[in-house]
Design a protein that fits this description.
Keywords: DNA-binding, Transcription, Transcription regulation. The chain is mainly alpha-helical and 217 residues long. It has 10 helices and no strands.
């Protein structure tokens, strides 16, 4: 007798994207404020207004939630669209300036400074958190910018033989000396006027090294 095939189980109850967003917002708030070790999944659940079971239904563990929160924060400030090049993208100098301004605002924000300090302290006994942060945030931004530079080189907007190295140059210039001074508490963050002047000088310097051939767009 031929066995009758049994229906496969359904995919289960769909997850609520609103609750996922609330969990990420809570994580972005609590991790910088309280530190990684001191921030429990119970605290994140309470801040988000959901159960701990709901938190774990969206994120397997605290590490994956931390990584997702870092990625979410970076994408808020520097979304994928910021790195796109197309017919309506405008002059390459303006695109570089926009990315630099967004990046500078991100890395000098209070929460970013708190996260950097937290990871520096954590690295004394466990560098795993810093690696998670780098892969979820800076590595993603570097990859996006490398791809933009490669496209700009291919279309003659820039001259970039090594996009990875050029991306590193760009972001290190954007951070500048002031970032380290703010990080160690030696000075307050730049004012908006100071930040704009700094970014404009960075873009001018970058274009002097990687700018297009004369006559190119």
């Amino acid at each position: 007798m031929t066995a009758v095939p049994q229906p496969s189980p359904g995919p289960g109850r769909p997850k609520d994207p609103g609750k996922r967003l609330a969990i990420l917002e809570a994580a972005k708030k609590l991790f910088p404020r309280q530190g990684y070790d001191a921030t429990s999944m119970d605290a994140i659940a309470a801040e988000a207004g959901v159960s701990k079971l709901t938190v774990y239904s969206h994120f397997n563990d605290k590490e994956s939630l931390f990584s997702a929160a870092v990625t979410e924060r970076c994408e808020e400030q520097l979304p994928h669209a910021a790195f796109e090049l197309g017919p309506d993208s405008g002059p390459i100098a303006e695109r570089l300036r926009e990315i630099a301004l967004r990046c500078h605002a991100l890395v000098t924000s209070e929460e970013a400074i708190q996260l950097h300090r937290m990871m520096a302290a954590q690295a004394q006994h466990d560098a795993r958190l810093a690696k998670l942060f780098f892969e979820a945030g800076p590595r993603r931004l570097l990859g996006e910018f490398e791809a933009l530079l490669a496209r700009a080189d291919a279309t003659g907007l820039l001259r970039v033989e090594d996009p990875a190295q050029a991306a590193e140059h760009f972001f290190c210039l954007v951070k500048g000396l002031a970032h380290m001074q703010v990080l160690i508490g030696a000075r307050p963050p730049l004012t908006m006027e100071q930040a704009v002047r700094h970014v404009d000088s960075v873009v001018a310097l970058f274009l002097s090294a990687y700018g297009p051939e004369p006559g190119a767009r």
